[in-house]
Amino acid sequence: MMNMNLKKLMFLAFLICLQTLSFAQSKNVQLPTNWFNLDLVENGFFGISTEKAYRELLKDRKPKQNTIVAVIDGGVDINHEDLKDVLWTNKKEIPGNGIDDDGNGYIDDVHGWNFIGSKKGNLQFDNLELVRLLRIYTPKYQSTTNLTPLDSTQKEEFRLYKKMVGDFGKKYEDASNTFSVLIAINKVLDSVAKINNKKVPTLADIDNYKADDETEEQVKTIIRKGAREDGSFEKFYKNIKEGYEQYDAMLKYNLNPKYDMRAELVGDDYSNSNQRNYGNNDVKGPDAMHGTHVSGIIGANRSNSIGILGVANHVSIMAIRVVPTGDERDKDVANGIRYAVDNGAKVINMSFGKAYKWDKKVVDEAVKYAESKGVLLVHAAGNDNQNNDIEENYPNKYFDSPEAEAYKLAHKKPAKPDFTPPKPMQNGMGMRPTVGRSSIVKPIPLDSTKFNLPHANNWIEVGASAYKDDDNLKADFSNYGKYNVDVFAPGFLINSTVPDNKYEDLDGTSMASPVVAGLAALILSYYPELKPNQVREIIMKSVSKVAHKVKYKNERDETVRVPFSEICVSGGIVNTYNALKLAETYK
């Protein structure tokens, strides 16, 4: 009889394989390093025609300004060979003297600021916003039932509490089950490496390894399959190791209600959302992979004959660290936006997001401040293959206004059923998870009235596309929305800068957003008189329209084929060549 551990492993492996098979785009492909800047007609890859634009439209032209782009993220390696010459530098600040020379409240902010650190160090891990909220609501409502007398405010809080309990249970179940598979795979990989006296084994070593039991034999099958689908054993090995770290952190920190190091490592008055001056000047932080990759896409040096080519030339990258491994906090996001605006940024890239809000008002105020100062915000739509017209995704362009509150009261969502703890055999984060997927939610009727509620006009929401002009053009992980996702841009196998002078391929709407931020910066370098809403309009009107249908899994978990205009406002992929030609007509 098959033991229970093997049964569970096989079942979970089967689920992971199904999830992998649902990924429409193959990673077993060799793409040009710069494919996202190439032209569909000239090169056969659905890039954004950046190189064509430089060659045909900008060859003999000089830009009118150097555009500052703020990267609000998890940290940027400011010493990277392909970024060090394109960094924003605060010329009013004397580096390393421990004095706030320019009087802006931030000491030695030479290349930006870190809002999640202090003299004691840096905050690397944090909870999901869901967990932080449960920490507040659980003592109030854990003993409450549907028969408990509650006033209207308490009823709304109780409804939210029940939803959060269900979401937490599902996330914890998924993370625990996925982590158990990763532990089993890692055990075999490490055993094979040790036996062969190697740091990293080969696929041949895996094949020659004599499994101890049925479980290990099943793991060998998973490894072979994964190596084929990822294009090589080396890529699979790397993905598994990164996945292990991700889910380990998720269980230890992101989903752990007992973990909270904010007070110790940041030391701000977290209850005061208007507090501005806290943090330190370490803009790299303990994990700068994501932010460094984003920065390279926007503006990696195009003239140094090394590395990659960013979208924009004549750009300066301002590094602002607010995103830990976990969910960013609204207070930090708002302060990051304000810092960027006050220090001259004209474009802000935000490749992050979360399902719950803590203090949206403070973010709304910062967004309005950016709009009043002529700053464009570019935001990643998210990587859960969810419909953003239905599901919440924060931050977003909509304000928590009286009109929004009235709409919310008139259109309450039905509460989710209480979460039932899983049985042993049930199935099990402006970057795409290595392993595992978020659960698919059930659809609710869509009322387009809400999309006319008060919102920012300096905001672009970006989904991720793949390289091939076929029905798999929508990256399978990308969120979408006929009303809430404005454009799509390349976000699949994007090669860019990572810490320590290295370069890697990453996927996600986190990669698509900086493609658009780079395009916006490029437009503004040559047409600095344009307002944020005009740049947004130019980018959206100049997309390469997708004339055919694309397929994806909808909220019912059904594979459907729809016109591209059904998954984003513009119905296309951003295009540098078209955008610059259109910008020329604006006076």
From TrEMBL:
GO terms for biological process: proteolysis. GO terms for molecular function: serine-type endopeptidase activity. Keywords: Hydrolase, Protease, Serine protease, Signal. Pfam families: Peptidase_S8. SUPFAM superfamilies: Subtilisin-like. The active site is at 73 (charge relay system), 290 (charge relay system), 510 (charge relay system). InterPro entries: Peptidase_S8/S53_dom (IPR000209), Peptidase_S8/S53_dom_sf (IPR036852), Peptidase_S8/S53_subtilisin (IPR051048), Peptidase_S8_His-AS (IPR022398), Peptidase_S8_Ser-AS (IPR023828), Peptidase_S8_subtilisin-rel (IPR015500), Protease_P7-like_dom (IPR034080). This is Peptidase S8.
